[in-house]
Design a protein that fits this description.
Length: about 250
């Protein structure tokens, strides 16, 4: 189908052919790892992530887990393959960016899961990054959501995440410019951007991370674009969850 350019100039298209408010192709599956309590595979553009969930399991004695806690503790481990990015290098366990992502994901879901139902236990989330092309934290959050649902761990609602960025013309107070949605790797290298995660179908923000500097006056519009992207992603993940539930029901009946 030919591109309708009647109300949108071709000069406004991004390098990958998307308009400012369009998501990349999103593909997701659940129950991809039979040995795990819950698992998922998610692609956001060329960013590809596998997530597995183990637990809730009783915490090891003497460990720093949930042994003395009335609620379950969430432990997140992220492994980034050396071939996943352009740099072709493996990130160690002490990598600062990886540690920050692990802390962000654990904090977001600790506040959302009904951990009081599993006292003195630990839920372990393992994320394996196979390919990086922007929106890595958002992809990890979305993959974790699906894996936790697959594991049957109760939560108040599920978290979906997306990125939004500011173009050069947008940052220079061009009134006709718009913030960009769902940034790819090249856009993240050049533009200031934020990652926003919302809880449920509304606009309640549970995660907001910004790693670059930008004009404060542009934050509100970028945040609004990110929240709208989360709403679009939520509808896609709803379809994945419904398809998984139907498959489980059909399997039980047969």
């Amino acid at each position: 189908m030919p591109l309708d350019t009647s109300s949108y100039a071709l000069a406004h298209l991004r390098l990958d052919g998307r308009r400012w408010n369009e998501l990349r192709r999103l593909h997701a599956q659940t129950s991809t790892q039979a040995a795990a309590d819950g698992s998922s595979y998610l692609e956001m553009g060329n960013t590809k992530v596998i997530c597995t969930v183990a637990g809730p399991a009783e915490s090891r004695k003497g460990g720093g887990g949930g042994g003395g806690n009335a609620e379950a503790k969430i432990e997140v481990e992220i492994g980034i393959a050396g071939f996943s990015g352009v740099e072709r290098k493996r990130r160690g366990k002490g990598d600062k960016r990886t540690s920050e992502m692990q802390h962000t994901i654990a904090s977001a879901f600790s506040a959302n899961l009904f951990g009081h139902l599993y006292p003195h236990s630990t839920i372990t989330v393992n994320l394996h990054v196979l390919s990086q092309d922007g929106s890595l934290l958002a992809a990890c959050l979305n993959a974790t959501t699906l894996a936790l649902i697959d594991a049957g761990i109760p939560m108040s609602d599920y978290i979906v995440a997306c990125t939004a960025g500011s173009t050069a013309s947008y940052a220079s107070n061009d009134e006709d410019a718009d913030p960009l949605l769902d940034l790819n790797g090249l856009e993240e290298q050049e533009l200031p951007f934020l990652t926003v995660g919302t809880l449920g179908a509304g606009e309640k923000v549970s995660v907001l991370i910004m790693e670059t500097r930008m004009q404060m006056t542009r934050l509100e519009a970028m945040l609004a674009a990110g929240v709208d992207g989360c709403r679009q992603i939520r509808s896609i993940l709803d379809g994945v969850v419904r398809a998984h539930g139907k498959a489980v029901l059909d399997s039980a009946i047969s």
